[in-house]
Every structure is written in structure tokens, then in C-alpha cells.
Amino acid sequence: MEYDLAIIGAGWAGFNAATKAKALGLKTCLIEKGDVGGTCLNLGCIPTKTLIQSAKIYTHILKAASFGIETQNPKINFNKIQERKDKIIRQLNQGMNFMLKEIDLIKGQAEFISNREIKIGEQAIKTKSIIIACGSKPTELPFLKLDGKKILSSNEILRLKDIPESMLIAGGGVIGCEFASLFSTMGAQVSIIERLPQLIPGMDLEVAKKLENILKRRGVKIQTNTDARKVDPKEYAVILVCVGRTAETENFGADKIGLSRENGKITVDEYLKTNIENIYAAGDCTGKIMLAHLAAYEGCLAVENIFDPKKPRKINCAAVPNCIFTDPEVATVGENEEEAKNKGTEIKIHRFDFLGSGMARILDETEGFIKIISDNKTEELIGCSIIGPRATELIGIMALAVSKRLKIAQIKDTIFAHPTLSESISEALK
């Protein structure tokens, strides 16, 4: 059997590529060695945010008295929390499999025979075009070898049966800060060490410092400019290693067909095409910005470029929102203050503190601020950083504004509902 398109990997890039291909009428097969949904559904976005929501509910209950609600002796049932997480994963997995109707889902490890033929176990399929969307895996440290018991990656930490008494997190990036916020809320004594001078390297410096101060006030011990080699593993019940992710590009015969890679990442051009004419790649395996929503966008874009090669579209990563589900949440899009200044842009900074928001006071979540960056000459909005309540939802408005290069007046003159958190955006620009 010959397909129009074969997709390797059913994570967020591969799944969205497959559904897009079905919508365009391409005869498609989707090859996956594990569970549909990839890291995002099974070991990343969905399970971590499910656990974080339970921690959030616990926090609300602890301060319920300030809302006039009396509760007695709230406690965490971690087994129930884990059961809820697993149930949500199963439900979403079933929904994704339902959406793959009319697409041939082939389970197994893909291996290239040629650029038009792929072997999966004893089966071989032919295809006109291929999209590689094989994802990424946690990066390991040679001096902190993962053992699945005490030294864990972000994969294994999700399967803990009990809340550890103490936890060291090696790596103060997005994943490390999310887990620090989660487990410190649930009662663990958490420490973070980060090799670079700030938490979440690359984040707006003021926002990163604010998050660091909040975590410290909540009992998290944080050491920046600290090498993980200086750590004594015996001092902690659990060590979580989260120092980034590595593109998963081994084991499918890339070298056999001459597929170009650089430092393990699949090399693609601005149209997501590899060095082989009929093969594209999307998502984490290209080693660009490793975010599920960008992977979904890339998967669809690759399919569109295969479907209509005479009118290819270039990938645009200028306004990709980045969300961090700590408490409070952090979200950014576009350029931050330091990046804009380093480019030599004459900028104007607009900010609003959530202390001034009626809705933030109603929610009793006034910690944080919105910081919007505009080009002082053109008045175009070029970036936004938010730390505070519902930051991960609010950033969607700014992603639209930055992607369309809207001007200050276009947002400032928009009527936002009151009382809402979103009106804080227009307040920042007044």
C-alpha cells in the first residue's frame, strides 16, 4: 500500500499533522511506538498541569477562611490526585484516538528503508512524503545518573506514589520551577540549583527575580550560579534532574538515508523541509523552541507545504507564547526588555501591578504585574511578560497583538469588560 503521507510520531506535532492531512484529503498513516499524544499528553503538559491544579485547589482551601468559608483539617490524598491525573490522560487519549479515524495508526518503531519506504516491525509501507515528528526526551547529566528511584527525570517524577520529604531540583528552568511550586505547596522541602545567574534563563529579568522571591518566601531554597556537581545526593530524598530536553532522533535509520542532523537535531529550512526533498520535520526533534503549541503549528504547516508546494509558507516564531504554571503563573510573548535593548530598539515600558486590579483582589491573588514592551518610534507592541493570576490565559491577548504588530492605541482604545483581569492589559497602556 502506498500513502500520500507517512508521519513518524503521534505527539502534538504528528497528531495535528495527521488530522490536518485528513482534512486535506491525503491518504495518511501515523506511526507511533508508544501512546498517542506523546510527551505532552502522557508525560508533560497534561499530567503536570493536572497535578498543579490539585495543588492550587489545596492552596485555595487553606485560605478559605479569608473568603468566609470555614473548613477543618484539609489534607492531601496523593493517591487520589494521581488517579485523577491518570483518568484525565486516558480520557484525552481516547478522544485523540477517535479523531484519528480514517487515518491508519501503525504501532511500532519506524525505520527508514529509503526516503519513500519505511519499515515497522515486519511491515513495510511506501509513501510519497514523510513528516518526522519524533519528539524529545529529558537531557541527562553524566554525574547524576537517572536510576528511576532516587534520581529522576520529569518522566519518573510524575509516577511518584508519595510526596517526598525533601527534593533537590537540578535546573531552574520552566520544568524545575513548576515542580518546585507544586511540591513545595504539597509539603516537600524543595531546593533548586541553577547553573546560570537567574531562574528561567532568557526570561525577563524582573519577572524571573519576582518569581524567585515568591518561591523563597514559600520556603523553596534557591541557589543560582551553582553547579550540580557540588551537590551531595545523600542530603535529599529525591533528586529531580531537569536541565532541558534533547531531540529524539536516534533508532529510525536517519543516517541510512543521509538525513542531515546537527548536534542530534534534524536540520530543517524555513519551510520545515529537511535536506531530502520529500521529507519534512516538525516539533521538538528539530530542536527549536520545544513547546507543544508550536509543535502543533509546525505539524500543520508542514502538511500544508507538502499539499501545496507551489505556495509554501515560512515558519514564524516571532510571537510564540511561553507559559509557566507556577503559583503565581508566568507567561511571555515576543521580546522582553533585555532582548529589545540588546537589539538596539528604543523601547517604552508599560506596566500594571495586580494590586490595582479589582478582580485580582476579589480572587485574593494580587502578587505580580504585567509588563508590556513597545517600540517607542512606531508604537508597535513587540513583547509582553506577565507574572500573576491567570497569566497563561492573559498572554493569548498579547500574542495576538504582538503577532499582528498592533499599536498601543489599538489595544488602549479597546473596551475590556469590568471587573476582569484582562482589563489590566489596557490599564498598563494608559
Summarize the structure.
The chain is of the alpha/beta class. 33% of the residues lie in helices and 23% in strands. The longest helix has 22 residues, at 78-99.
Give the helix/strand layout.
Blueprint lengths: L1 E7 L3 H12 L4 E5 L5 H6 L1 H18 L15 H22 L4 E4 L2 E5 L2 E4 L2 E10 L3 E3 L12 E2 L1 H4 L8 E5 L3 H12 L3 E5 L11 H13 L3 E3 L14 E4 L3 E3 L13 E2 L2 E2 L12 E3 L10 H16 L14 E3 L4 E6 L2 H6 L4 E7 L4 H6 L5 E7 L5 E8 L2 H13 L4 H5 L10 H7 L1
Parallel strand pairs: 1-2, 1-6, 2-3, 6-16, 8-12, 9-10, 9-12, 10-11
Antiparallel strand pairs: 4-5, 5-6, 7-13, 14-15, 17-18, 18-21, 19-20, 20-21
Helix pairs in contact: 1-8, 3-4, 3-6
Tell me what portion of residues adopts beta-strand conformation: 15-25%
| Count of β-strands | 21
Query: For this entry, what is the oligomeric state of its chains?
Result: single chain
Give the helix/strand class: alpha/beta
Can you give the helix content as a percent range? 25-40%
Q: What is the name of the CATH architecture of the largest domain?
A: 3-Layer(bba) Sandwich
What is the distance, rounded to the nearest whole angstrom, between the alpha carbons of the first and last residues? 62 Å
CATH fold call of the largest domain:
FAD/NAD(P)-binding domain
* Count of the separate structural domains: 3
Tally of individual helices: 13
- Rough outline: globular
